[in-house]
Amino acid sequence: MRISREELERLSPADLARLETVLEQTVQEREAGKVPWRCSVPGCDGRPHPGRRGPHARAAQLAPDWEWDVWLALAGRGFGKTRLGAEWTIEKARTHERGALIGPTAADTRDILVQGESGILACAPATFRPVYNPSKRQLTYPNGAIQTLYSADEPNRLRGPQHGYGWFDELAAWRYIQEAWDMAQLGMRLGAHPQICVTTTPRPLPLIKLLVKDERTAVTKGTTYDNLDNLAPTFRRAVIAKYEGTTLGRQELDAEVLDDLPGALVARRHIDDARVQAAPELINIVVGMDPAGTGVGDETGLVVAGRGVDGKNYVLHDGSERLSPERASERAWSLLERYGASLVVVEDNGGKDWIETVLRMAWKRRNPGGGSPPLRRVNASQGKKLRAQPVAMRYEQGQVCHVGSLPELEDQLTTWIPEEDSNSPDRTDAMVHAVTHLMKRHDRGESVLISPHGLRAGGVIPAAAEHPAMAARRRAEQRRAS
Hints:
By secondary structure, the chain is an alpha/beta fold. It has 16 helices and 14 strands. The strands form two sheets. Strands 3-4-5-2-6-7-1-8 form an eight-stranded mixed sheet, with helices on both faces. A six-stranded mixed sheet has the order 13-12-9-10-11-14, sandwiched between helices. Helix 13 (384-396) packs across helix 15 (426-442). It is elongated and about 85 Å long. The N and C termini lie far apart (88 Å).
């Protein structure tokens, strides 16, 4: 950056303060070893070399040099997808007025695309660093360019705004993938050639397959191993050790787009064929819970499922995560309240008897004097494969429907091969507990309408469940009519 004495003398005090801040940040960046992203060396592998002493772009992290419409970066975890997307987005802001930033959720867009360690604020140089306004969901650059943050969980927010480019992160993890994609596409209408950069771990979803085949899509593929030099040892231990050598590792590390696997519990096509965007009227909802075991990285499975008046089972939500017993119990009851569920169905065998005690304590804290918790224990004495088979058959018959996309649960269902691994994943177990309970209760013809008034924002509202006062009025009218 060059500036003459005459230009300095014309600057206002505010502009001088801004210039001083930029110069200080520039010096700090150089001292920290930050260098420009693009390298002039053809085919550079991103390692430090004369002229580029700090980490910078590998050739595979730069946009292809032709007039593509969509740049699809299908890569394994740790490849550098976020940095790739952030740097491309910063470059676009230099020449385009408006762009869209879309992550799977609002928190993802904020925490990863904008504020993450490889996000826009961390990557933008001091001389072109945007100001983030959370209340407006916007980044504003020194040249006036604006980028707006969106959540793929709210497709309708994309209906009106117009943009000249967009960065769509983890497309395969978008819950309402097709609807959100369509709404975002309709908004790409500013400028001569709107472009979209998609960074995602691959999953064999119809939209991903369609984009790969499109002649206007530039596809970049890469693996976790391409970027090992820049990954922390803890990442190697936690992620590579977890997935390496597994079927799921071929997707998460090697970035293979896996089709249906012979022997897997559920075929992905069966999930896709039965998928719905909203559940119908539900006559019962339960929360399935599979407590974490003692293995490193084990998760507590928490899956919400409901029974529709059409006789089908609907998987509504996957809240599984690596949680402490107390937090897991609190989340279980929170999901029960949010979705108006009738029970928490929990596995208590295999040394997990402690979970009932913790669940009861959490229930008392939330409901002092509220009586016994709505808890159903499952002692799964059968083998996990045998226990899951009836549910797998319902998937094949189209009797289990996923509401929206549940990527991590679906990965487990479609990559767990019982003959290869007797230890079924936690999310899968939680779903099996919930759906098995609904099958046992309602396949005998029993049905109980649930009240919608216990549901909170974000839950699934059964359209025909009646308030007791309305039910009494209806019965009175029927008596008068007769």
